[in-house]
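Bumping with the actual sequence this time:
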Amino acid sequence: MDLQTHQGNIITNTATMAYRNLLKTVHNPDRFMDVIVQPVLFMLLFGYLFGGAIAGNVQAYLPTIVPGILMQAMLSAASGSGAQIREDLDSGVFDRFKSLPMAHIAPLAGQLFADSLRLVLAAIASLTTGYLMGWRPAAGFGWVLVSAGLAIFTGWALSWLFALLGLLAKSAATVQSLSLMAMLVLAFVSNAFIPLKSLPKPLHVLANLNPVTAVITAIRQLLATGTWTHAASLVLIFGVGVVVIFAPLAVWAYDRN
């Protein structure tokens, strides 16, 4: 088999497995609850409960909270990858896939690409709720799409990290617990919901080191200025770096399983 044929098989097989995972998700609507209901609830709760206390009123708080909820939704959607992979491994279906005449990496890659739908739905739910609450970004609709694309790419990159966790953990329950803790720390020890200057010194330092803080800052700049910023370029480089590091590690863990 020549290289071109082999590459074509990988793409075709990955697309087939991604379609299989999409069908599985569509037939299990509960898998969408965390990426559709959760962003809406958090936007409403944080906006109306804390908007007045933090920013004076809800309208003034929306430019802060919408990017924060968007990124939290990306983390929640990305963290689901690990649990789903662990469930498939425990069910033995991946062993069946490995016995079929398909590209070895296709089942894993298909899962990760299918999860992109969860990221897109989470972004739509977050931004639409913010818009209905009165959020109007200064940069215009085009830069909303650019910002959403940057957030989705970052979430997809992080899904490789959570996939690695799912491949290494012993059970889906363990993956869910660790993913939830990681998501809460990354989302709340950041500038997602409050100004960093209000944090105590140790938390302020941690929040500045948190990559989620950098992503949210870049998104806010894009939406406020309507220009591609240095911070956005750094976030893009960060996302590529995460994929370069954790995708091979996920493949290695997949081979071990």
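The tokens above came from a reply further down the thread. Residues 1-7 have pLDDT under 50 and may be disordered.
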